Amino acid sequence: MKEFFKRNKKVLLISLVIFLIFAVGAAVFTFINIGDHYGQITKGFLQAKADGTLSVNESMPKLNTFDLFLHNLFADLIVIVGGLLFSVISLLLVIFNAISIGMPFGTDLTFFSVTILPHGIIEYAASIFSLACAFKITKLEVEMIRTKSFTNVLSEHRRELKDILIMIVVVVVLLAIAAVIECNIVELILKWYFGI
Length: 196
Hints:
Elements: H1 2-7, H2 9-34, H3 40-51, H4 65-81, H5 88-107, H6 109-115, H7 117-147, H8 150-156, H9 158-184, H10 186-194
Helix pairs in contact: 2-5, 2-7, 4-5, 4-7, 4-9, 5-6, 5-7, 7-8, 7-9
């Protein structure tokens, strides 16, 4: 596995930097623009707890771990397959995802650190691996177009094909772990943190 990370350090780092630029940028932009409304969710929870009105509605539907896993897997597979379209769609999807992840942190860092980070860190890693995988697919595709040879490129780049497969497996494992945490542990963390 050490060799895998050594070989793919550059593509994983590029994917990470792209993700972080847009996620952090969205959080900062949102924080600057939200003004006095920053932290309203956390303040609301804490105020309700102080007033004794904080309660949990047990009739709320629970997230289904497998359905959530499939949803996230489908999204990341679209990113990976987008590598066949020169990673344009992949890049746009990951940028959109990073922005949509960053914005909540700009509105209430405490609440979203408690509710998103426990599973989100793992999901974000899966997104980064998905984008890196798409870039590797694009690299092979460009090589096929340049050399006008499908079979030669595949036979000469077996190591890259194995790396792509490893990345897909890593994405699946990370998303399975994230789904278990999101559906079964995040609510407990929320209840513990706010004393519900």
